[in-house]
Structure prediction request, 221 residues.
Amino acid sequence: MSVSEQALEKTELRTRKRNPDISRERILAAATEEFATMGFGDARVDEIARRAGINKRMLYHYFGNKDELFQAVLESIYETICKSGQSLDLDSFGPRQGLTNLVDFVWNYYLDNPQSITLLNTENLHNARHLRFSEKTRTVHPPFESMIAKLLERGVAAGDFRPGVSAVALYITIVGMVYYYLSNNATLSVFFGRDLRAPDALKHWHRHVHETVERLVLAAP
Prediction:
């Protein structure tokens, strides 16, 4: 180990002792960028360490190997979605406004976080081999699902929503319409011969998602 590497490791040890969460978040941010840019197969731990400004040995202290690091990146995505979704506080709104807020949340999340789309596509190509071992993912989703279920129950009780729509079906419907449009935007734009990423096109699809979800959920007049 060179003198400069030894100095870097000493600095990292001091940082880790002061605030280990900062080091972990730096690694996760760098890994998210590297995996989203290069994919799982071509991503390099050396490059992630360089991006994070941390010694590779320190990286392995927090994450045992590349697979565990990728799993942590995916867990971070789902944790962010679930915790941010819960902060919507849907109970504070009427059912119809709560439904509008939920659609807007999903739309804005994937529009603002294209890396999440790339990373989830990668994990699906690997048949969810990392997420299937994730205890964290299994613990963060029940409160999120429960929040949507409560919204639907309140809507049915108020006569605003029709019965029979499950929280899982509603969420997958919303995400499916948002995710597919954004993840396949380039090919769809070529196929239909128009820029589906243009501001007017995005506004139109956002409105279309709202209208479709309302037709699914709202009670008949």
Observations:
- DSSP finds eleven helices and no strands in the chain.
- The chain has a mean pLDDT of 91.
